Amino acid sequence: MGPAQVAAIIAADPRLIVPVGTCEQHGPHLPLGCATIIAERLADDLSAATGVIVAPTVEYGVNGNTDVVFPGNATLRKKTLHRMLNDLLDSWESTGFREFILLTAHDYDAHQEALDTVITRAARVRVVDIYAVNMSDILEGQTEHLHGGEADTSLLLYLAPELVRMDWARDFIPSDSKRHRRGKLRVPKGSAGSVGRPTLATAEKGKALYERLRERIGDRIFLVPAPDA
C-alpha cells in the first residue's frame, strides 16, 4: 500500500493490527518462527473478516530462558522490544491511527510485559495474548499452552504442515510443573527445546484450536466500536 491508500483506510477505520512474533526454538520438530507464523496468520484472517488492516510483522520478541544454546535463536531484551514498539506506535499514531491491537502467540512474562507497558499519546492499545483463550477441552496431554507442546504443534500441523517434522517431536514433562506454568517457562537441559506432549498433536486439534481463537478474539476485540478517526 501507498500513503494515499493507508490514509483512506484510516479515515474509514483508524485501527491497526500489529502481529508480534519471536525467533526461538520450539523443539526440533517446529520452525524457529512458530509463534510468528501463528500470530501473522491469525492477524491476516481477522483483518480479512473485519477490514482492519495489518502492520508488517514484528518478527522478534523476548525469548524464554533456556539452559542450553539453540542455534538460530534471536531475542530482544524486554526494554528493547518495549522501546521499539513505543517508537513504531508513535509513528503510526502521528499519521492518524487511534487504536493498536498487538497480537502475539508467546506468553512468556517478560515478552508480555514489554507489550503491556507500551505508551501512546492518546490512542488505545489492546494486547491480545492468544493463549489466554481456554483450550483445555481440546487438548489431551495438558490443560494449557506449553512451549512447543501439543497446542503449538497442532496449530502448525493445521496452518503449515509442511514445516512440521513429527518424527522429530519429543515429549518432555518437567518434574516441577509449577516452574513451567504459563509465563514462567525455563527450558531445562533435558528438553529438546519444547515442553509438554507434542506427540499428541494433530491437524484436527489444530483446526479446532484455530477456529476457537479466531472466533473468541474476533468477538471480544473487534466487536468493540472503533475510535473516531
Distance between the termini: 19 Å
Going across the major beta sheet, what is the strand order?
A: 2-1-4-5
Number of domains: 1
What is the average of the pLDDT values?
Answer: 92
Order of helices and strands: HEHEEHEHEHEH
CATH H-tier superfamily: Creatininase
Task: Compute the number of helices.
Answer: 6
Whole-number radius of gyration? Answer: 18 Å
List keywords for this structure.
single chain, 229 residues, alpha/beta, Rossmann fold, 4-stranded parallel sheet, globular
What is shown here, in short?
The protein has 229 residues and is an alpha/beta fold.
Explain what you see.
With 229 residues, the chain is an alpha/beta fold. It has a single domain, classed as Creatininase (Rossmann fold, 3-Layer(aba) Sandwich), CATH 3.40.50. The chain contains six helices and six strands, in the order αβαββαβαβαβα. The strands form two sheets. Strands 2-1-4-5 form a four-stranded parallel β-sheet, with helices on both faces. The protein has a two-stranded parallel sheet with strand order 3-6. It is globular.
Task: Map the helices and strands.
Elements: H1 3-12, E1 15-20, H2 34-50, E2 53-54, E3 65-66, H3 78-94, E4 99-104, H4 109-116, E5 124-129, H5 150-159, E6 186-187, H6 203-222
Parallel strand pairs: 1-2, 1-4, 3-6, 4-5
